């Protein structure tokens, strides 16, 4: 299958620069620099229907279009590789196999946006990916595909790596900008949005690794080709799904947008592990709501998953079987968010540990009927926080109370976890 | 006090940054690698290099998971306790590590070799349960594999 992201992958090593070029790599860049204007590149991305692959799913071309082109001073592009959403490991797999699609994609994005200096923000623990990128950038520079006067043109683009030191909130775009500037990475208030005032107060675009890695194929093959990759008519392109939990083969696979949940689990992952029965899954990383057996044939696309009451998110699919207690699973997720809260705003800093306390009580058989009401209030009020961390944390809890209220109540009535 | 060569290379790193404090994380990491953890002295030195106050460095240092503001063992074990590892029974691996090392979470072994810390998702969800030892990631952990890894890491420089 000719999907854009993994087609250059070798089984157990990183693809080489020469192999990538022989297989059509950097053709998008050449095409753009020999006859496409920056606006043409942006238009191609807009027409392709590409949506942000980091989790929010915002239309990439539209995001780019918000950047004012007439302000004095530099504009910036940042690639967000702070992949710390639990259950998500797609960017690591991509970059450990192929750093070039991202390098080429960023160069194209810089060209479209009029950016001269861009950053790749990489989380701690992704040193192998960072080393691949550093080497790839050198190779691209030597070949005249990056750096000064790209392909002999008047355009010069510089790429820099920023190696972070580990903290989930750095993936929030305004926190990431603070981190890059060397400030404490609390999120900033919006507006102003980064597109207007971001890095060093200049117009800034922050895009996910997978999003940017899609750009070369869009430019090389056209928007219509990219749209046609999806299985559903509204969809566009492919998606990296990284699966974990109770499946036979926990794998990171590239599949067309619109592939059904059942086909991901039964097809790409070889079905459920040890003959277990599918109970639920989280489709797009920790801050998304549960999908249930009735969603087995749901096409996985942004709008279809949203309609089913969850989010496609990052594509980090975490599969639970009948032996998993979803109260305990939700408690684990809340524990993560409580620990990763940056502490800047009160509802998040105080609310998440309180929710954790209540869920711990319920899981240990000390819950009361009123606790369900209190949890529901938190789902409602923790939406009023400074950034999206707490609302994200509330998504699985909301899902638990919506879809598995009986399981929660069972804990309270039986005064113990029914699965232990 | 850091050696002159390290100081020079850090000064060069700061000079190449767009603004000095942009290099803060790199400087803290280098100083930590030198001292083993980010000592009070290192905070002062980082502040001088970056043109910040020690308090400004402190508020950065305490924010990041991989910057240690207290003494740690020669190698830090970060064991993941996020959801994909939970699905793969990481609780048992964490208990095994505690028993084997004779420390609780946050503790350092009596010989000063290992510090055990829980950590957030390492992006190793496909190979859970996972941990890293001295920055080296390991997945698909079993008690037997943990034994082997710790033995090897103990002797690896």
UniProtKB/TrEMBL annotation, chain A:
GO terms for molecular function: 4 iron, 4 sulfur cluster binding; FMN binding; metal ion binding; NADH dehydrogenase (ubiquinone) activity. Keywords: 4Fe-4S, Iron, Iron-sulfur, Metal-binding. InterPro entries: NADH-UbQ_OxRdtase_51kDa_CS, Nuo51_FMN-bd, Nuo51_FMN-bd_sf, Nuop51_4Fe4S-bd, Nuop51_4Fe4S-bd_sf, Soluble_ligand-bd. The keyword Metal-binding applies. The keyword 4Fe-4S applies. Residues 327-372 form the NADH-ubiquinone oxidoreductase 51kDa subunit iron-sulphur binding domain. Pfam families: Complex1_51K, NADH_4Fe-4S, SLBB. Coiled coil: none annotated. Belongs to the complex I 51 kDa subunit family. This is NADH-quinone oxidoreductase subunit F. The gene is nuoF-2.
UniProtKB/TrEMBL annotation, chain B:
GO terms for molecular function: 2 iron, 2 sulfur cluster binding; metal ion binding; NADH dehydrogenase activity. It comes from the Bacteria. CDD domains: TRX_Fd_NuoE (cd03064). [2Fe-2S] cluster binds at residues 80, 85, 121, 125. Its EC number is 1.6.5.11. Pfam families: 2Fe-2S_thioredx. SUPFAM superfamilies: Thioredoxin-like. Keywords: 2Fe-2S, Iron, Iron-sulfur, Metal-binding, Oxidoreductase. The keyword Oxidoreductase applies. Its cofactor is [2Fe-2S] cluster. Binds 1 [2Fe-2S] cluster. It is an enzyme of class 1 (oxidoreductase). Belongs to the complex I 24 kDa subunit family. This is NADH-quinone oxidoreductase subunit E. It comes from Geomonas paludis.
């Amino acid at each position: 299958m000719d999907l854009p992201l993994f087609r250059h992958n070798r089984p157990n090593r990183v693809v080489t620069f020469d192999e990538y070029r022989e297989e059509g790599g950097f053709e998008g860049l050449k095409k753009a620099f020999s006859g496409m204007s920056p606006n043409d590149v942006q238009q191609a991305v807009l027409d392709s229907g590409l949506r942000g692959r980091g989790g929010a799913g915002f239309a990439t071309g539209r995001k780019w279009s918000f950047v004012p082109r007439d302000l004095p001073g530099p504009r910036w592009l940042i690639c967000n590789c702070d992949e710390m959403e639990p259950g998500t490991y797609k960017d690591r797999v991509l970059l450990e196999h192929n750093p070039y699609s991202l390098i080429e994609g960023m160069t194209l994005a810089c060209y479209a946006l009029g950016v001269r200096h861009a950053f790749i923000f990489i989380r701690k623990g992704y040193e192998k990916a960072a080393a691949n990128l550093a080497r790839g950038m050198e190779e691209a520079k030597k070949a005249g595909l990056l750096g000064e006067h790209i392909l002999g043109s008047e355009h010069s683009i510089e790429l820099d790596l920023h190696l972070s030191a580990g903290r989930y909130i750095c993936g929030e775009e305004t926190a990431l900008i603070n981190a890059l500037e060397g400030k404490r990475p609390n999120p900033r208030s919006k507006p102003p949005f980064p597109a207007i005032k971001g890095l060093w107060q200049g117009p800034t675009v922050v895009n996910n690794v997978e999003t940017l890695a899609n750009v070369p194929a869009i430019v090389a093959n056209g928007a219509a080709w990219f749209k046609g990759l999806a299985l559903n008519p509204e969809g566009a392109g492919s998606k990296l799904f990284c699966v974990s939990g109770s499946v036979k083969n926990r794998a990171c696979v590239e599949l067309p947008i619109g592939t059904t949940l059942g086909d991901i689990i039964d097809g790409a992952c070889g079905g459920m592990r040890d003959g277990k029965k599918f109970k639920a899954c989280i489709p797009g990383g920790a801050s998304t709501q549960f999908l249930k057996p009735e969603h087995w044939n749901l096409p996985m696309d942004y709008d279809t998953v949203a309609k089913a009451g969850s989010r496609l998110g990052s594509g980090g699919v975490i599969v639970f079987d009948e032996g998993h207690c979803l109260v305990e699973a939700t408690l684990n997720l809340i524990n993560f968010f409580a620990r990763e809260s940056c502490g800047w705003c009160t509802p998040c800093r105080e609310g998440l540990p309180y929710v954790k306390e209540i869920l711990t009580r319920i899981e240990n058989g000390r819950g009361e009927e009123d606790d369900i009401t209190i949890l529901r209030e938190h789902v409602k009020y923790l939406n009023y926080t400074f950034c999206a961390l707490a609302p994200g944390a509330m998504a699985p809890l909301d899902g638990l109370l919506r879809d598995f209220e009986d399981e929660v109540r069972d804990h309270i009535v039986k005064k113990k976890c029914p699965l232990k | 006090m850091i050696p002159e060569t390290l100081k020079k290379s850090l000064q060069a790193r700061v000079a190449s940054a767009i603004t000095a404090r942009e290099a803060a994380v790199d400087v803290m990491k280098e100083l930590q690698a030198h001292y083993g953890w980010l000592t009070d002295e290192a905070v002062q030195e980082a502040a001088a290099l970056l043109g910040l106050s020690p308090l400004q460095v402190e508020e950065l240092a305490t924010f990041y998971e991989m910057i240690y503001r207290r003494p740690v063992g020669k190698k830090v074990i970060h064991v993941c306790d996020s959801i994909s590892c939970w699905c793969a029974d990481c609780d048992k691996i964490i208990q095994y590590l505690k028993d084997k090392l004779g420390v609780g979470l946050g503790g350092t072994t009596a010989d000063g070799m290992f510090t055990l810390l829980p950590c957030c998702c390492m992006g190793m969800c496909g190979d859970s349960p996972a941990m890293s030892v001295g920055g080296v990631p390991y997945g698909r952990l079993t008690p037997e594999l943990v034994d082997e890894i710790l033995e090897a890491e103990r002797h690896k420089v």
